């Protein structure tokens, strides 16, 4: 805020900083367990505010707008001091009807100082219904893809393991890849994935495929979503896969278009896991369905993974990653990473089948608040990661409005190393990536400008 200050005949402008109020308010469910279908739940509230000049007694309340949640204890007394809200450990309670695990419902929290007519804080949280077992599907990503496996027998979308061996099938196309290698193939039909259509597929020796043309053969697997790795990725078994030795053996990849069944199948046939002495083999497939044969209700394609041999043994490098990831790399379904399985996921084994589709269970609920999200009002830069980096670094951005973003890399002498301009048609969350190719090891400054605002952050590149 700019104030005019006058002393005698002299007048001048004084800049007075205005500190924004920030809030971190959460519901803490008893024993750390979220609400479970058909059961009662209880929870407390923790809250921390910065730059909020309030203290004294208050009342906290929770409300909901949906009829499949019944709230029994909706208010609690507490106090706020030095920005901290203190309530009883179990201040609220309710129950959830028999809806699908993974469903979400809104709970609105309001905080009101005693004696005041209105609340000083109100926020709506989306609460996910827990209680998932391996016989239920893995809950969806933000876009809406679910993961069903062959153990989800009570769900129509559960896949049936139906292995077609391509290595001995006439008509299959055989590719032999080097270690950390890839091949680009044309799809026999157009495929819609995360709302975008594709007609080709990049197949990497390291157990992943991606719809765009990719040039980097990422061997180090990461979690999903994560900005390191290929865009629009399918990861049936992302790991450092290899051949037996360096005596001429290659990694065998097969593809086959089953026009009758409406399937395009990609098979990794017995590549060796790069861990240890390379004695463990893997054999697995991706199945893409022709959308004239099988398609989700919203027009997105159906993807399946199948496993004939599974040895998830790479304990030195995060074991394997299984799942799908969006073209923007900020959304996706992680089925397993580093042997940590998602809710509802069954352990990888021979004979396992996993289907990814945007069709949800019949009794699934997700409140519309998720779609009607509030867009950010300002431009902000998040923390670059990983840092130090190699081969690339990601910088999260928050855009308050559509427009141009200029990203410039400087060395410590202040010399411009490279500069790029990005045009974003919509506001929201974005990720900018800078590749370290052609860079010397050292410390660099990343300057990101949008309009009149600029942020600078230091990063380190290590070869």
Write the SSE topology.
Elements (H helix, E strand, L loop, with lengths): L1 E6 L2 E6 L6 E8 L10 E11 L5 E8 L5 E5 L1 E7 L2 E3 L5 E5 L7 E10 L7 E8 L17 E4 L23 E5 L4 E12 L2 E9 L3 E3 L22 E6 L2 E2 L8 E8 L4 E11 L7 E9 L13 E7 L11 E5 L6 E6 L2 E2 L11 E5 L22 E2 L10 E8 L3 E9 L4 E9 L3 E8 L6 E9 L2 E9 L2
Antiparallel strand pairs: 1-2, 3-4, 4-8, 4-9, 5-7, 5-10, 6-9, 7-8, 10-11, 12-26, 13-19, 14-15, 15-16, 16-17, 17-23, 18-20, 19-20, 20-21, 21-22, 22-26, 23-24, 24-25, 27-28, 28-31, 29-30, 29-32, 32-33
How big is the Rg?
26 Å
**Span between termini:** 46 Å
Shape annotation: globular
- Taking all residues together, what is the mean pLDDT? 87
Largest sheet: 9 strands, antiparallel
Helix residue percentage: under 10%
Q: Per DSSP, what share of the residues sits in E-state strands of 2 or more residues?
A: over 45%
* Structure class: mainly beta
What count of helical segments does DSSP give?
0
Number of domains: 3
Number of strands: 33
Uncertain parts: 368-375
Name some characteristics of this structure.
Immunoglobulin-like; 463 residues; 33 strands; 9-stranded antiparallel sheet; mainly beta; 8-stranded antiparallel sheet
Can you tell me about this structure?
It is a single chain. The chain has strands spanning 2-7, 10-15, 22-29, 40-50, 56-63, 69-73, 75-81, 84-86, 92-96, 104-113, 121-128, 146-149, 173-177, 182-193, 196-204, 208-210, 233-238, 241-242, 251-258, 263-273, 281-289, 303-309, 321-325, 332-337, 340-341, 353-357, 380-381, 392-399, 403-411, 416-424, 428-435, 442-450, 453-461. It has no helices and 33 strands. By secondary structure, the chain is an all-beta fold. It is globular and about 90 Å long. The protein has three domains: 22-129, Immunoglobulins (Immunoglobulin-like, Sandwich); 146-357, no CATH class; 380-461, Immunoglobulin-like (Sandwich). Helices cover 0% and strands 49% of the residues. Strand 23 and strand 24 form a beta hairpin. The strands form six sheets. Strands 3, 4, 5, 6, 7, 8, 9, 10 and 11 form a nine-stranded antiparallel sheet that branches. Strands 12, 13, 18, 19, 20, 21, 22 and 26 form an eight-stranded antiparallel sheet that branches.
């Amino acid at each position: 805020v700019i104030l005019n200050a006058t002393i005698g005949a002299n007048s001048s402008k004084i800049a007075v900083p205005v500190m924004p109020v920030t809030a971190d308010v959460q519901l803490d469910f008893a024993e750390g367990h979220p609400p479970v279908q058909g059961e009662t739940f209880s929870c407390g509230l923790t809250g921390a505010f910065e730059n909020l000049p309030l203290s004294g007694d208050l009342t906290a309340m929770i409300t909901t707008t949906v009829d499949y949640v019944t709230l029994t204890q909706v208010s609690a007394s507490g106090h706020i001091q030095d920005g901290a809200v203190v309530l009883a450990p179990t201040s609220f309670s309710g129950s959830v009807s028999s809806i699908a695990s993974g469903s979400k419902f809104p709970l609105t929290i309001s905080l009101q100082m005693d004696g005041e007519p209105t609340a000083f804080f109100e926020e709506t949280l989306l609460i996910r219904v827990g209680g998932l077992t391996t016989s239920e599907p893995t809950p969806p990503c933000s876009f809406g893809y679910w993961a069903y496996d062959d153990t989800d027998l009570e769900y129509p979308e559960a896949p049936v393991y139906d292995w077609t061996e391509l290595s001995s099938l006439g008509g299959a196309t055989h590719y032999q890849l080097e270690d950390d290698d890839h091949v680009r193939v044309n799809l026999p039909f157009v495929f819609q994935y995360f709302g975008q259509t594709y007609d080709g597929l990049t197949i990497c020796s390291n157990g992943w495929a991606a719809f765009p043309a990719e040039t980097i053969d990422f061997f180090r697997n990461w979690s999903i979503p994560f900005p390191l790795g290929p865009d629009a990725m399918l990861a049936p078994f992302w790991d450092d896969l290899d051949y037996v030795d360096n005596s001429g053996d290659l990694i065998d990849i097969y593809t086959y278009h089953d026009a009758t069944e409406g399937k395009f199948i990609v098979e990794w046939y017995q590549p060796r896991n790069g861990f240890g002495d390379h004695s463990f083999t893997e054999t697995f497939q991706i199945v893409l369905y022709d959308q004239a044969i099988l398609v989700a209700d919203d027009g997105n394609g159906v993807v399946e993974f199948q496993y004939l041999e599974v040895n998830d043994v790479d304990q030195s490098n995060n074991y394997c990653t299984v799942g799908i990831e969006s073209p923007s790399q900020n959304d996706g379904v992680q089925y397993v990473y580093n042997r940590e399985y998602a809710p509802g996921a069954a352990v990888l084994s021979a004979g396992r089948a996993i289907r990814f589709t945007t069709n949800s269970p019949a009794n699934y609920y997700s409140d519309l608040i998720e779609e009607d999200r509030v867009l950010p009002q300002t431009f902000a830069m998040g923390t670059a990661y990983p840092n130090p980096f190699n081969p690339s670094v990601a910088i999260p951005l928050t855009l308050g409005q559509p427009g141009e973003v200029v990203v410039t890399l400087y060395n410590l002498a202040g010399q411009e190393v490279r500069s790029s301009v990005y045009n974003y048609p919509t506001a929201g969350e974005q990720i900018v990536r800078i590749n370290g190719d052609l860079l010397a090891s050292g410390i660099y400054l990343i300057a990101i400008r949008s309009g009149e605002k600029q942020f600078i952050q230091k990063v380190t590149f290590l070869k």
